[in-house]
Structures are given as C-alpha cells and as structure tokens.
Design brief:
This protein has 213 residues and is of the alpha/beta class. It contains 8 helices and 5 strands. 53% of the residues lie in helices and 13% in strands. Bound molecules: ligand Z5A.
C-alpha cells in the first residue's frame, strides 16, 4: 500500500491554522478522499495522554512555573505519543493526516521564544523521531499584533498567549528563517489576508504539490 501524506499547518497564534486545516480537509473531500481516509491532529495533543500533557503546557499555575527545558520535553513527550500511536499508523494505512502544528513550532517557540539551543532541540527530535518529517508544511505568517488580536477575541489568554511582544517576534523570525532555509518542504502563506485569499493560496499550494490529485 502507498504511504499516506502528512500535511502540517504552522504559524503564530491567530494565524488561522485551525480554520485552514478544516479547509484542507474540505479540499481533500472535494477530490474524492473519503472521511475515513482523513485524520486531523493538533499539537500538543491528539491522543488522551497527549491531551493531558497539553493541559499542563497551557495552564497558568500560580504556585509553580514550568522550566523551558521541561516544556521542551513535554512537547516531545506529547508529540512522540501522537506520532507513534496515531500519525504513523494512519500514514502506513495510506491516509491523509492534516496536522495543526508539529515540530516547526518547537523550534520557533522553545527555540526562538524561550532561547533553547537549536542543537538541543534537534538532538531530542532526532533521538525520538529519527527520519520522520511531514510531507508538506504550510507556514501561515502573520504579524504577531494582528494574530494576537484575532486570538484575543476568544477571551481568556493561555500561558503562551500571555508572553510579551518580543517573544512572538522571535517566534515569527524562526518560522521565517526555517522557511528560507527549506523552501522545498515549507510553503509560505500570507495569513493576514482575508479568508478567501488565504484559502485560495492554500489551494494553489496543494494543487502545485499534486496533493490528492
Ligand atoms: N506550542 C509550543 O510552544 N511548542 C510546540 O511544539 C507546539 C505548540 C506544538 C498551542 O496553542 C500552544 O502551544 C501555542 C504554541 C505552543 N501557543 N500559543 N499561543 P493552541 O493550539 O491553543 O493555539 P494556537 O495553535 O496558537 O491556535 P489559535 O490561537 O487557535 O490560532 P489559529 O488556529 O491559528 O487560528 P484560528 O482558530 O483558525 O482563527 C483564530 C480566529 O481568527 C478565529 O476567530 C477565526 O475565525 C479568525 N480567522 C481565521 N482566518 C481569518 C482570516 N483570514 N481573516 C480574519 N479572521 C480570520
């Protein structure tokens, strides 16, 4: 059986990743991919254990703070659980997996945002995931102030959303640096356009990569 395809949507908060992940699923359906051949994931999360880890990562604790290195290891604990129990089996069964964030986020947030060295992140990644990578990453780029404004409309902010402006600028810079270094596997979309324009750009990328067709 032909291996499936792992498509990841990445970017800053409020970029519209979840919205566009749903649009990618709609695109696949239009091209005749059946519902049971499409799996959606989100990170951190996506399995019962990984969702428990997500709660630890997102909750604001007044009585303790999470060290950057502990945060990094929890991200990878959740990710390995998801990759090994959900994503890999789905790909082996020939399915499409549409992921809301994956490990580019770790380089951006724990690397750029928290200042953990790229070498440490890469060594943990390589040790637990080996040569596993997404087939396509769509990076939705948006200036942090615009993304945070969208995200802020949801109400209460989580532990990440309470970081300062510089944090999000560093995160964005790593995302864009990675795109510049790997334009073969990362596609860039301007996420501060209106919904129809973002959707059209994503469709053009999927068509150019011959996804589902
Ligand atoms: N994190 C990390 O540090 N390291 C890691 O390795 C990983 C994650 C994997 C997960 O939070 C947090 O974990 C995240 C990074 C960290 N931290 N933050 N902050 P999450 O999953 O809860 O949140 P998120 O990933 O940032 O997603 P989000 O804020 O929900 O944003 P989104 O998915 O990109 O956007 P959306 O929900 O699709 O849209 C947001 C709003 O904008 C919504 O009202 C939409 O209707 C609207 N929208 C969408 N598109 C448009 C356009 N084009 N125009 C206008 N309005 C739009």
């Amino acid at each position: 059986m032909q291996r499936g395809c792992f498509i990841v949507v990445e970017g800053g908060e409020g970029a519209g990743k979840s919205t566009m992940a749903a649009e990618i699923v709609a695109y696949l359906r239009e091209r005749g991919v059946s519902d049971d051949a499409i799996v959606r994931t989100r990170e951190p999360g996506g399995t019962p254990i990984a969702e428990d880890i997500r709660k630890i990562l997102k909750d604001i604790r007044k009585d303790d703070c999470l060290c950057p290195e502990a945060e990094l290891l929890l991200m990878y604990a959740a990710r390995v659980q998801l990759v090994k129990t959900v994503i890999m089996p789905a790909l082996e069964a020939g399915k499409y997996v549409v992921g809301d964030r994956h490990d580019l986020s770790t380089l951006a947030y724990q690397g750029g945002g928290r200042g953990i060295s790229r070498e440490l992140i890469r060594s943990i990644r390589d040790a637990v995931l080996g040569d596993f990578y997404p087939d396509l990453t769509i990076l939705m780029d948006i200036p942090p102030e615009k993304g945070l404004l969208r995200a802020g409309k949801r109400g209460e902010l989580d532990r990440f959303e309470q970081e300062d402006r510089d944090f999000f600028e560093r995160v964005r810079k790593v995302f864009l640096d990675e795109y510049e270094q790997h334009p073969d596997r990362i596609a860039l979309v301007r996420a501060d356009q209106d919904f129809a324009a973002v959707r059209a750009d994503i469709r053009t990328i999927l068509e150019s990569k011959c996804i589902a067709g």
